[in-house]
Write a structure and sequence with these properties.
- This protein is α+β, with helices and mostly antiparallel strands.
- 26% of the residues lie in helices and 23% in strands.
- The protein is built from 29 helices and 59 strands.
- Strands 52-53-54-55-56-57-58-59 form an eight-stranded parallel beta sheet, with no helix packed on it. A five-stranded antiparallel beta sheet has the order 14-13-12-9-15, with no helix packed on it. Strands 34-33-32-29-37 form a five-stranded antiparallel beta sheet.
- Strand 53, helix 24 and strand 54 form a beta-alpha-beta unit.
- The longest helix is centred in the middle third of the chain and has 27 residues.
- The chain is flat.
Length: 1222
């Protein structure tokens, strides 16, 4: 309603209210700056001098009809102002009657006159050469030229006045002065009226993350790529939300390091492997500076055109405060002086308005030239091209990511980087100061020193440009410098450059040209080394095989093909260990393998660690042909000339020889240094007392080892062979001596003839010995390296068999007998039980896991018996007498205990013929009586209800004595063993049911309860079957046919019903007992995959089931089948700590749509990777009513990186992130 002069002015009011007092009017084309925008009103800031009194007033930026009253413009550049003045001056010349072409010609003639006057007679030749070279250079760079020029003095004056915003006085008609070789842009110029995007960066007050807001478009986002793709890079640089910086360290130690890089990390903590390495002089874009930590958030441009940018983190200062980054543009406000060592809240500002160069054009390889435009707008006309490698002293002006070239370079605008942040220029980094002055500085006073002494110019690395009056700037030609060939880094330098990570462990053996020397080369860097250095620096680690057989496979996946098996005690080289428990090993096929392979194995299993690190102080057998080679391949062709290992004085290969070792010698490892070790011989196979000690190769350069660890109780095959040979030789000599005594006068030739005649008799004896080989000592055990099967070799005939049961060979057993006081099988507490024999059997079974752990053997190889103590105990302990028994292990005399009430017999059966397989661990424990007693007390103390065997309540039981012996027992045939297992199964099925459940089975038919609840009651499979039989009888009863189903809730917690009980329950549900069932709770019942599959079938007959709880049951692979039986009314599903994997997670995510009423899904404590977790989180988008998804403790890998992605995924689907527990 308020109209200004000529009905076109803009009203300026006192306050934001449009109805407030009017303080003035803004005419069209007036330039203003806005301090604040609220709605359609804006607060005026800076104004031109004629409108300065209106500052602080309010205007309308949008009218009521939606039309804008303002348009955004860019600042007038120096070239634009010059062009405007030239056009104005040409109009003045035309007004005086001078033709335009004639005026341009007069300007050219004036330029030639000035050029001739500025040239002296002594430098005609040099000036002509410079002028021609510079002219060709600028003409190819700039394209066209303009005749109107201005002097550099006027240019500096105009720049200073424009910066102080002083009004310009009208100029009189005069000839313009010629500039120093300035070539202006064409007359036509374009500039955008607006800048797209309008993005601003703020800090989210809740998350503390940078948030990008576009006030004009009304958009906000956390994504950097969304901002960049909409042109936000220019906006964020113009409004100084982001900073354009250059990597230019001031530290002298970094300036001198030519191979220094700025490491870029993926996390603000600057840990882990660097994701990028940026060289000195590179331009980068910084999003945020953190002065507390000295970490800057930077923009990582994409490597491909269509790729996306990313965010990284760098350290922008050293620990002492010296900066690593310099800003390209001076800050708006001057920073205060900081104490030494304190960090700036940003990059170090330049000394002037913009950072000084020189700068080099470093375009991507696919781009040969950089476009130079007329105006600042990237869409303005192109009028020149800048080739790759072009050198600039500085930039005249920088706005956003656009920079104006200096006048001496012809003007125009270029992009410092592309729209995604890839830099186009690189600054020459600062060099460390030199003590010696260059020769060129001493001869700067001479005018012709730069032109006549070319070699003086070339001696200096950096060249100072020369400015000639009337000619402009001339930079001497720099001869091409050959690129130095990169030298391979040493291993410590490579470790420092690469940081930590898997790449350090990835090496391969190859021949080094041209000498064919074998070295280890890194797959990710040009560096070579030796196996000794890899082991010495702990990149690779030596290890020993602890398990009986270590099976090697091709890949990390457990399902990959098996390629070999290494026996116990073999020395291997481990490369790295994965988070899934797999280890990668070096696998040479020969002693000097030119290209050793790699193999994968399990780091450990249920029986303990498979591979342990090599330590000093261990005992080893010497195996010259390889510690992991089979015994058959170890034997020498000539037993009188055995293969020997050389022992040196030091670890160097050329050190003096101090001794030798042969197969069967026992050495102790005293010191480890890389792939070498210092050993001391503690036992000789030749029964020699000579002390041998020194250094030998633990591994060859290919990773082949000639040692094998010696475990307690083991006997080397070579020692056994020598004993047998010795015994046979002695028996033959004895027989010969007897025959010589009988015959007396037989000749030596006749003796030999008789020996030859007795050869068939010897074969017959060997056959008889083979037939009588019923003991374990007559057989030798080995493992097939291809199939991994155990086989046995007869020591007499060499016959090979795979099953000892077919020949009736005895079974190797270790018997541990322990005597106790205050414990007895005749205790009153045990006989008060309803079934004492059954309770005693339960106590014996409960003790099996403890004794199996002591011996480090599987549970199925252990049998425990509780027996009564000696019938005739000796009251007083007497010293041993010669008539006492002899211990089978130590050979020492033993005597009986003073008194014992309970005798515990533990039988440990070996899988082969080596009883030491089970006795080795027990011997180590029995070496220390106190430790062994503590272990025995712990085992019996862990047996439930052991107090039933106590004779005197309140008094502790004590161990009196323990005996350990190795023996052979008769082995039953396969048929007898199968018959016995079948009989035990039948006996178990026919076992007596507890009285409680016998009565329950009878009463269920009449009581027909709606709920059955048992908590931590040892029901077992037999009683569970009886209970389910009662349910079936109640369902099929004649009096209940009108309403056969009665059960609505089943709660059985911790009752150990097992798979048998689960199958019985599934059968009862399948016939119809669960038609009204709404809740099933079966926590901690030892239900495995078989029971889960059966329940899946039975649950199909439970249409109203709302809650199913199966936590702490090893469901495993059966969980998938269980899901198929769940109906649509399910609300709660609990399968925590159920051994579920990714397969179960994927099946759950696919099935979740069948449960529209699902409220709670609990899968905590399982073993899933990010694949399974991601599938479950995405399924939340389909189950809108799901209130809780519990996955705590279910990830096998840390989820710190994936956490934000999963949260963002839920937010996009409008899902409350608090529903996910991860």
């Amino acid at each position: 309603h308020r109209v200004g002069p000529n009905s076109s002015a803009l009203c300026v009011t006192m306050t934001r209210d449009p109805r407030s007092a009017v303080i003035g009017w803004l005419q069209p084309d007036a330039q203003v700056r806005l301090h604040l925008i609220e709605g359609t009103r804006a607060l005026l800031g800076y104004l031109e001098e004629e409108n300065a009194h209106l500052a602080g007033g309010w205007i309308s930026v949008v009218r009521l009809d939606g039309c804008a009253t303002l348009r955004r413009i860019l600042e007038e550049t120096e070239n634009q102002r010059i062009q405007r003045e030239l056009n104005q001056h040409l109009k003045e010349l035309e007004a005086e009657g001078i033709d335009t072409l004639e005026a341009l010609k007069m300007l050219d003639e004036a330029q030639d006159v000035l050029l001739c006057e500025s040239s002296s007679a002594s430098s005609k030749h040099s000036s002509a050469r410079i002028s021609s070279k510079l002219g060709s250079k600028l003409s190819s760079r700039m394209g066209s030229k303009i005749g109107s020029r201005r002097s550099s003095a006027d240019r500096r004056t105009s720049r200073s006045t424009s910066q102080h915003h002083t009004p310009r006085t009208p100029r009189t008609l005069a000839w313009p002065k010629v500039a120093d070789q300035f070539v202006g842009p064409p007359e036509k110029q374009e500039q955008r009226e607006t800048v797209i995007g309008g993005w601003r960066q703020i800090t989210d007050p809740i998350w503390g993350r940078p948030l990008y807001v576009s006030p004009v478009q009304g958009r906000s986002t956390w994504g950097v790529n969304e901002v960049i793709k909409t042109g936000g890079l220019d906006d964020l640089l113009l409004n100084r939300s982001w900073e354009l910086c250059c990597i230019d360290p001031e530290a002298l130690e970094i300036q001198k390091a030519e191979d220094w890089f700025l490491n870029v990390y993926a996390t603000p903590s600057l840990t882990g492997e660097a994701i990028a390495h940026w060289e000195k002089g590179r331009m980068i874009i910084v999003q945020m500076f953190d002065a507390k930590t000295g970490v800057a958030t930077v923009l990582i441009p994409p490597m491909e055109i269509e790729g996306d940018a990313a965010t990284g983190y760098v350290s922008y200062a050293m620990r002492d405060g010296r900066p690593l980054l310099k800003a390209m543009v001076a800050p708006i406000e001057e920073w205060p002086e900081l104490p030494e060592g304190q960090l700036y809240a940003g990059a170090k500002p330049p000394e002037g308005e913009f950072l000084e160069g020189p700068f080099f054009n470093v375009l991507p390889l696919k781009q040969a030239e950089l476009i130079v435009t007329i105006g600042q707008d990237v869409g303005s006309d192109q009028w020149a091209k800048m080739p790759r490698g072009y050198r600039l002293r500085h930039f005249a002006e920088i706005l956003g990511f656009r920079a104006r070239l200096p006048d001496l370079e012809g003007g125009g605008w270029v992009s410092l980087c592309n729209a995604k942040g890839m830099p186009h220029f690189r600054k020459q980094p600062s060099e460390a100061p030199e003590l010696d002055l260059p020769d060129e500085l001493s001869s700067r006073g001479s005018k012709s020193s730069k032109l006549s002494s070319a070699h003086g110019v070339h001696r200096r690395k950096g060249h100072f440009p020369v400015v000639w009056p009337g000619l402009g700037i001339w930079i001497p030609d720099v001869p091409p410098v050959p690129v130095p060939k990169p030298e391979p880094k040493s291993l410590p330098e490579l470790l420092y450059a690469m940081g930590t990570g898997r790449a350090l462990c990835d090496w391969q053996r190859m021949a080094l040209e041209p000498y064919k020397e074998m070295v280890w080369k890194n797959r990710h860097a040009p560096s070579t080394t030796r196996l000794h250095d890899l082991l010495r620096l702990r990149i690779w680690k030596p290890a020993v095989v602890e398990t009986e057989w270590l099976h090697l496979r091709e890949a990390e996946d457990e399902r990959s093909r098996r390629i070999a098996s290494m026996p116990q005690g073999s020395l291997v080289v481990t490369q790295w260990v994965t988070s899934t428990g797999s280890v990668r090993l070096l696998f040479p096929e020969e002693e000097d393998d030119p290209s050793p392979g790699i193999a994968w194995a399990d780091l450990g299993g249920a029986e303990g660690a498979c591979v342990v690190l090599l330590e000093e102080g261990l005992d080893f057998w010497v195996e010259p042909r390889g510690g992991h080679v089979a015994d058959e391949d170890q034997e020498d062709s000539d037993q009188f000339r055995p293969t020997k290992l050389s022992v040196r004085e030091t670890w160097e290969s050329d050190s003096p020889h101090v001794g030798s070792l042969q197969r069967g010698d026992v050495v102790q490892l005293a010191e480890i240094s890389g792939r070498f070790g210092r050993v001391v011989r503690i036992k000789s196979i030749e029964d020699s007392d000579e002390a041998v000690g020194g250094w030998l190769d633990l591994y060859t350069e290919a990773g082949w080892s000639c040692l094998r660890k010696r475990f307690p109780g083991q006997v080397h095959p070579e020692e056994v062979k020598r004993r047998i040979l010795k015994d046979s030789v002695e028996s033959v000599l004895l027989q010969l001596s007897q025959e010589v005594e009988q015959t007396g006068s037989k000749k030596e030739e006749e003796i030999f003839e008789e020996e030859e005649a007795e050869l068939p008799e010897l074969l017959r004896e060997l056959g008889e010995l083979e037939a009588k080989s019923l003991y374990t000592r007559d057989w030798r055990e080995a493992i097939d390296p291809i199939w991994g099967r155990r086989y046995f070799i007869n020591r007499w005939s060499g016959q090979v068999i795979h099953k000892l049961t077919r020949y009736g060979v005895a079974e190797a057993v270790v018997r541990l007998t322990v005597y106790f006081n205050n414990l007895s099988v005749n205790a009153a507490g045990l006989h008060r039980e309803e079934w004492p024999d059954k309770k005693l059997k339960q106590l014996e079974d409960s003790a099996i896991p403890g004794f199996a752990a002591m011996a480090d053997v599987p549970d199925q190889r252990v049998a425990v018996k509780f027996l009564a103590g000696p019938e005739d105990p000796i009251e007083n302990s007497e010293p041993p007498t010669p008539n006492d028994s002899e211990d089978s292990i130590t050979g020492e005399a033993t005597y009986r205990p003073a008194r014992s009430d309970l005798k515990v017999e533990v039988m440990l059966k070996a899988p082969g013929v080596k009883a030491a397989w089970a006795s080795a661990a027990l011997q180590r424990l029995m070496a220390d009586a106190e430790i062994f007693s503590n272990h025995i007390a712990e085992v019996l103390g862990s047996v439930p209800q052991i107090w039933l065997l106590q004779l005197k309540d309140g008094e502790p039981f004590t161990m009196v004595r323990a005996d350990l012996e190795e023996m052979d027992i008769a082995r039953e045939s396969d048929l007898a063993e199968r018959a016995r297992s079948k009989a035990s199964e039948i006996e178990e099925l026919a076992a007596l049911v507890d009285t409680e459940f016998v009565e329950l089975r009878k009463n269920l038919m009449w009581s027909r309860p709606k709920s059955m609840q048992y908590a931590f009651h040892q029901i077992g499979e037999v009683n569970a079957r009886a209970m389910c039989e009662g349910l079936e009888m109640a369902y099929n009863a004649d009096h209940a046919q009108k309403d056969p189903s009665h059960l609505e809730e089943i709660s059985i917690w911790g009752c150990s019903i097992g798979n048998g009980g689960a199958v019985a329950l599934a059968n009862a549900l399948a016939i119809g007992c669960g038609e009204k069932l709404q809740s099933i709770i079966l926590d901690e019942n030892d239900i495995g995959a078989a029971g889960a599959k059966a329940l899946g079938v039975g649950l199909q007959s439970c249409p109203f089931l709302r809650e199913l709880s199966l936590p702490k049951n090893p469901l495993g692979k059966g969980f998938t089948s269980l899901l198929s039986g769940l109906g649509p009314n399910l609300k709660v599903l609990d399968a925590a700590e159920a051994n579920l994997d990714d397969e179960a997670a994927l099946a759950t995510s696919k099935t979740i749509t069948r449960w529209p009423f699902l409220r709670s899904l609990r899968l905590a404590g399982n073993a899933m990777t990010i694949l399974g977790i991601d599938a479950l989180v995405r399924s939340m988008l389909l189950a809108k009513d799901l209130q809780q998804l519990d996955l705590r403790g279910s990830s096998t890998t840390p989820l710190a990186v994936e956490w934000h992605r999963l949260m963002k995924l839920l937010q996009k689907g409008n899902i409350d992130t608090r529903k996910l527990r991860l």
